[in-house]
Amino acid sequence: MGTVIPKQPGSQYTNEQRHAVIADYVVTGNITKTAAMHNMPKQTVSNWANSDWGVELLGQIRTEKAEELDANLTKLLDSSFEQAQDRVENGDFRVGKDGKLIRVPMGGRDLVMSGAIVYDKRQLLRNQPTSISSKSDSLEYYVKLFQDIAAQVDERQTKKANSIPGECEEVEDNEHKRKDLPNKAGKK
């Protein structure tokens, strides 16, 4: 369903012109360039692009352009894969000593790299991992990390305990317990 562009009484521009301006704005991404392309004030282009109908039309055109781009990329990928498959099966093109094109089998390194890249891309498309990390390595890393943190905490606590100025002695005062505080049974 297309965007309804409201009729502007007395306007010198047709709906087709408005549509063309918005479409060119999608392509250029620049109001000044778009206005110059259509020989019109840039404020008019800006007003149209920011109007309700302009924003809606921008969205529709961008969606159409994205679909076109997707179709073109798909064609390019299909062609690339067909040519790559041909090179793997029949060899790569080289110029022979006589100046004519000949087919030479792909080298091992090229075959392995091509295969690895295609495999990784297929794994990504399938939402599968492209590499495996050893869990024991990461567990060892975290154990060491926590040990280091614990050692730093112990060191800080020791420094803090040893850095209190003055002297103190440990006193245990069982004889002078306060009589106004309740004991564990809740009695005074």
Give the topology, please.
Elements: H1 15-28, H2 31-37, H3 42-50, H4 52-90, E1 92-95, E2 101-104, H5 108-125, H6 135-162
Antiparallel strand pairs: 1-2
Could you characterize what this model shows?
The protein has six helices and two strands; from the N terminus they run ααααββαα. The chain has a two-stranded antiparallel sheet. The longest helix is centred in the middle third of the chain and has 39 residues, at 52-90. The protein has 188 residues and is mostly helical. Helices cover 61% and strands 4% of the residues. Among the domains are: 15-67; 91-156, no CATH class. It has helices spanning 15-28, 31-37, 42-50, 52-90, 108-125, 135-162; strands spanning 92-95, 101-104. Strand 1 and strand 2 (101-104) form a beta hairpin. The mean pLDDT is 83.
Task: Offer a quick outline of the entry.
Among the domains are: 15-67; 91-156, no CATH class. It is built from six helices and two strands; from the N terminus they run H-H-H-H-E-E-H-H.
Name a few traits of the molecule.
mainly alpha, 6 helices, single chain, two-stranded antiparallel ribbon, 61% helix
